[in-house]
Amino acid sequence: MKENLVIVESPAKAKTIEKFLGDKYKVLSSYGHIRDLKKKSFSVDEKTFEPQYEVPADKVKVVAQLKSQAEEAHTVWLASDEDREGEAISWHLYEVLGLKPEKTRRIVFHEITKSAILDAIEHPRQIDLNLVNAQQARRVLDRIVGFKLSPVLWRKVKPSLSAGRVQSVAVRLIVEREREIQNFRQEENYRITAVFRNDEGSEVKAELSRRFPTEEEAKAFLESCKESRFTVQDITTKPVKRTPPPPFTTSTLQQEAAHKLGFTVAQTMMVAQHLYESGRITYMRTDSVNLSKLCLAASKSVITEQMGKEYVKTRQYHTSSKGAQEAHEAIRPTYMDQQQIEGNQQERRLYDLIWKRTIASQIADAEMERTQVVISIEGKEETFQADGEIIKFDGFLRVYNDTHNDNYSEGDNDNENLSTLPVMKLGDSLDREQIIATQRFSQRPIRYNEASLVRKLEELGIGRPSTYATTITTIQQREYVEKGDKPGQERNYRTITLAGNEIAEESHSTVVGQERGKLLPTDTGIVVNDFLKENFPEIMDYNFTADIEKKFDEIAEGKIAWEGIVKEFYEDFEPQVEKSINTHTEHKVGERLLGNDPATGAPVTVKIGRFGPVAQLGSTDIKQKPRFAQLAAGQKLETITLAEALELFRLPRKLGMYEGEPITIGAGKYGPYIAHKGSYVSIPKGTDPMEITFEQAVIMMHRKHVEESERHLKTFSEDAEMEVLNGRYGPYIAYKGNNYRLPKALHEKAKELSYEECMQIVNEQSDKTTNTTKRRYTRSK
DNA sequence: CAGTGAGCGAGCTTCCGCTTGACTT
Q1: Where are the beta strands (DSSP E) in A445-538?
Q2: Contact criterion met (CB below 8 Å) for A724 and A762
Q3: Residue A689 confidence class, pLDDT cut points 50, 70, 90
């Protein structure tokens, strides 16, 4: 038995702390919350708002262990995080473990260092019930919103859907961005650039101070420049500084890892978790940019040693993001003197990013000298401008290249990196080489990807570091949003070039607007969003969370009672729920009448059906049963036409009986197919499914069978899980649920590969990608 | 990259935020 039991939230933290405290202390972890509202039922009294808590099944063991240890200990130290949730965890522990006030202490620390922890032990306090109540208000309100709203959707749209304070607003952002893109009206203008030479023959690139709205005006301008003289009218140089970005928080780490390493949000968190557990980095779910004194000192000495004193600039950052709770430090390496670590490639790359970002934040500003040269055009008001920049002192840029990515649009000025300008002086005349007018188009807004959505949510103060990744998965699992690519579109643009005394016009073509891995709203997402916005505008308001957070703060300060806040909300909200559920409409939410079937006169509608977007032929009130057909890939509820919908009802067709079972031709998500005895054969794109005959179908099925039997190129007696298969893209190795590419050179002799050779390929390729990443986040269905 | 696919009046479903294992697909 130990005299003291310390309880923290995370086991990795427990391990570290135990080392600092010596053998009179035992440190255990609660693994987060140990008690929550009952899982299945509403569990909030609709009059008093009293919550009904339970210890969830997966926490029963932990709680039992903590309880027996607490009973034996002389003093129990509750050391959960110093924020709303952390305070509530301590309170729940206090209640569930049946602790006695005289043997319980509440402590907090902000750094996991020996001195910080010993100091915390010296300064215990009581559990802050006001803060706990703020958490209860938060928890109960989220339950009310989620468990009242979701059933409305089951009734009105489709079963198993969900709504919530965070997820519904996340979906709204994506739906609205898509609408902005649809409604975007492109504007065009002509941008004028020029190439000059100074008297030494060096090239000077410049841009005109204005753009022209039409081709005619641009051309007229070029025309008028034919005989012009160009003179250096003004030269200004000014020093410019660039400051390093602050150390990583969860959100900024997710953004940079997505941008620089191509990680998904979930992947980043997973790799960061590994780094945390192996003691490489500090806690990875944080909204704080604060660095410990230890880290500041260590960074300083690393920078001094590696780069010299002039690179040192110790900075402490302060969080500006909405609703930040700052229970932890920023995400940083535990030991700054470790520039590299052991581990797999993903771990090494993420660590490297974190190390560089942290060290950069402690390095001096980069200092630049920016030069702007104004070039006058004889007899004109417009001027050309040439910009140049030289780096006088690289500062933090030496280790970290800061990317400032715009969340909204790609912008229209493709500023190449500013370079050095050749030497010029006032009054110099420049030779005009050529002047080019280029047709430019305003850019439509860009869609969100995972990381930029997280950034937006954080900006609005919605969601927490521990939930960004799960929110993204939830809205995809509910099929409100899907990740996808948008192919670019070919766009033509014109240039007019004045070279010598000739004006030449040319047409060019370029592909613009290609997007990959973007979040796209589905029909279900759009219908649910519109319905919620119409019926529950307050919940869907982007400021709802921020406003309610202010009230939670007042609860935390002890100014108001938590039940009062919840009551105030509930009395306004609940009638809206009643109203929306009892409003009977003739048509389903989101239903669209496309027209009538010319053959029968029956109405053709589209809506969200039991299994997603569906077209319906006929209505339920006539004797004949209606027919249903799933919309094909690419067809949208909002845009599908009557003709397209009617086309869907031409399938399935029956071709006849074969080997005692019918052959049918159906249409699925992935296009038309032949179905027979539970097996399916895809119909290739160029073939019309309406034209296929019985005989052709039999041949196609036969061919598929042969291919199927040829698919297994080789199996091994050594290991049943290792196989060489023939796929659409040539032979490959399948091993334990994963597939491995075969080098081109081995394609020919795929059948002769030995077990060892296969194993070697598997090992080589599994180094590069961790298969566990995929598994963890596809687990729950 | 490595292969999918119906059905449209039961049943069940659902929130957010704190934290990690144990699944044998």
Answers
A1: 481-486, 489-499, 502-512, 515-521
A2: no
A3: confident
What is the reported pLDDT for A771?
39
- Rounded distance, CA A545 to CA A432, Å? 58
Which of chain A's residues 724-753 bind strand B, using a 7 Å CB cutoff?
A: 727-732, 734, 737, 739-742
Q: Within its chain, how far is the Cα of A553 from the centroid?
A: 28
DSSP A560: S
Which residues partner with A502 through β-bridges?
Answer: A499
Q: Summarize pLDDT for A99-158 with one digit per residue, the tens.
A: 999 999 999 987 888 888 999 999 999 999 999 999 999 999 999 999 999 999 999 999
Is A776's CB less than 7 Å from nucleic acid strand B?
Answer: yes
Contact, A771 CB vs strand B, < 7 Å: no
Of A276, A283, A400, A448, which is the active-site residue?
A: A283
For A322-365, give the DSSP string: TT----S--B-BS-TT-----S-HHHHHHHHHHHHHHHHTTBPP
In terms of pLDDT, which residue wins out, A477 or A764? A477
Buried b (16+ CB within 10 A) or exposed e, A652-672: beebeeeeeeebbbebeeeeb
- The verdict on pTM exceeding 0.85 is yes
Q: Tokens at residue A609, please? A: 């059906």
A395 CB neighbours strand B below 7 A: no
- Closest Cα to residue A734, out of A744, A753, A749, A745? A753
CA-CA distances (angstroms) from residue A558 to A132, A552, A567?
11, 10, 17
